[in-house]
Design goal:
The structure is a homodimer. The first copy, chain A, is built from 8 helices and 3 strands, in the order H-H-H-H-E-H-H-E-E-H-H. Chain A is mostly helical and about 120 residues long.
């Protein structure tokens, strides 16, 4: 099934040599932080809708179903603190607040697009 | 700053027309489920280390620091139930159990790689 290599001590020890655990481990810290950040409940959805352009608070609410004002406000503050989203007060009547991805936030586009494509192919 | 378009009612209403909210919303369900699944605490890290090839339980533990046996076991069961990871009992002494990504799991590689690259560029 796995290619016909003989099972046993030799191939087992070879396979273990092929696994550079220290190299794998090095990358984990930053990546793990990224997963915790982007994978937080609602954060992924907020990033997805902001990729199309800046949105007002109420527009994000509309585009992300089941998200409460309180939670959206909390997530936006976290994303601002991480430098992923920028908050802008708009002139005009009525005065509004708009949220836009920063360069750091827009750099998440390949991740978001890849996950969306995966979801459509494998979860549909 | 944003290109010199005149501020006011017309450009504001045009911008709103450019926002196809119903289209944006359609995609949210599956994508949101994917974020919840992959973004769950430790799941992203487990997927990352399994992308390099199958691993025994103890090897995953070693490669994902701070992950307890209990939690790893729980995550593996969830990933198996989702069809993302396959569990295989190995012949030999000592008898072992190996975990491997399925096609559905391997299809997450672009997402994982993109997020890892983002983390290394923006969180380092």
């Amino acid at each position: 099934m796995a290619g016909g290599a003989p099972a046993g001590t030799v191939s087992e020890s070879m396979r273990h040599e092929e696994r550079p655990s220290s190299c794998r481990q090095e990358c984990c810290g930053l990546y793990h932080r990224a997963v915790e950040l982007v994978g937080k409940r609602w954060t992924g959805a907020i990033l997805l809708v902001l990729l199309e352009g800046p949105l007002r608070f109420s527009e994000v609410r509309q585009l992300v179903p089941d998200l409460s004002d309180r939670l959206l406000s909390e997530r936006m503050k976290e994303l601002e603190a991480e430098g992923i989203v920028e908050r802008r007060v708009l002139d005009g009547v009525p005065v509004g607040v708009e949220y836009e991805l920063t360069d750091k936030g827009r750099a998440l586009e390949p991740t978001v697009r890849a996950l969306k494509a995966w979801a459509q192919q494998w979860l549909a």
